[in-house]
Amino acid sequence: MTDIASSFRKSSFSPLRLQSRSLGWQVGAVTLGTLFLALSSYIEVPMVPVPVTMQTFAVTLIGALYGWRLGAITIVAWLVEGAVGFPVLAGGGAGVQHFLGPTGGYLFAFPLTGALVGWLAERGWNGSRVVLAFVAMLLGNLACLVLGTAWLAVMIGLEKAVTFGFLPFIVGGLLKSALGAATLKLFSGNKADPIDPTRKR
Fold first, then answer.
1. Average pLDDT value over all residues in the chain
2. Running DSSP on this structure, what letter comes out for residue 128?
3. Taking a C-beta distance cutoff of 8 angstroms, is the pair 17, 193 a contact?
4. CB–CB of 136/120 below 8 Å?
5. Residue 187: its pLDDT value, please?
6. For the whole model, what pTM was predicted?
């Protein structure tokens, strides 16, 4: 019974079920995921030294829907696109300089953030348990802020980094976590699980 329950949980953590799809499906999902991440970068509120965007919402959602492995691969692919010159970063930015400046820590934190949320989603912190999904999203946002602020502290000092790179983003992180959890709930609402763990075999 434990094996059946484990199989059920792993097969149903995401309504997309990308872990059971063909390689072609997964490549297509990565492509669409990078487009979604790029679009989220254009929703921006300019701030100095770090702008407010919808990137963390997209990063955590990709992780929750794709799982930790494919989610991290998708986020890395998007960052590589930005590094080589595609205008997919915040406000349509591009180039290696974004990875070396004040926003570098947040950018490098994104794959880890997506992987963390994906790992939690695979263990039940997903749309079927909306409170846990919210906590997973919140932890992802917090991890991104902590890592990004640590990078920023090296450049401008800890006090300024916390003031300009952490505190202004707390409310946004809460709101984006709630939106992410609600989105997962909507995705999972019409899901029909292919395996019934109570079914006798």
1. 87
2. T
3. no
4. yes
5. 85
6. 0.85
What are the b/e assignments for 140-150, b being 16+ CB within 10 Å? bbbbbbebbbe
| Closest CA relative to residue 64, chosen from 176, 197, 193, 190 | 176
Beta strand pairing call for 44-45 and 52-53: antiparallel
Strand partners, 45: 52
Neighbours of 75 (CB within 10 A): 28
For residue 155 the two structure tokens come to: 């450049």
Tokens of 160: 């300024």
What are 114-136's pLDDT values in tens digits?
999 999 999 999 988 999 999 99
Average pLDDT over residues 42-50: 76
Query: Mean pLDDT over residues 163-187, rounded?
Result: 94
Cα separation, 71 vs 96, in Å, equals 22
Residues 6+ apart with CB under 8 A from 198: none
Is the Cβ–Cβ distance between 142 and 115 less than 8 Å?
A: no
| Lowest mean pLDDT segment, chosen from 60-64, 65-69, 171-175, 185-189 | 185-189
What are the phi and psi torsion angles at 44 (to 5°)? -140, 140
Cβ pair 145, 169 in contact under 8 A: yes
Q: Which pair of tokens denotes residue 17?
A: 């079920």
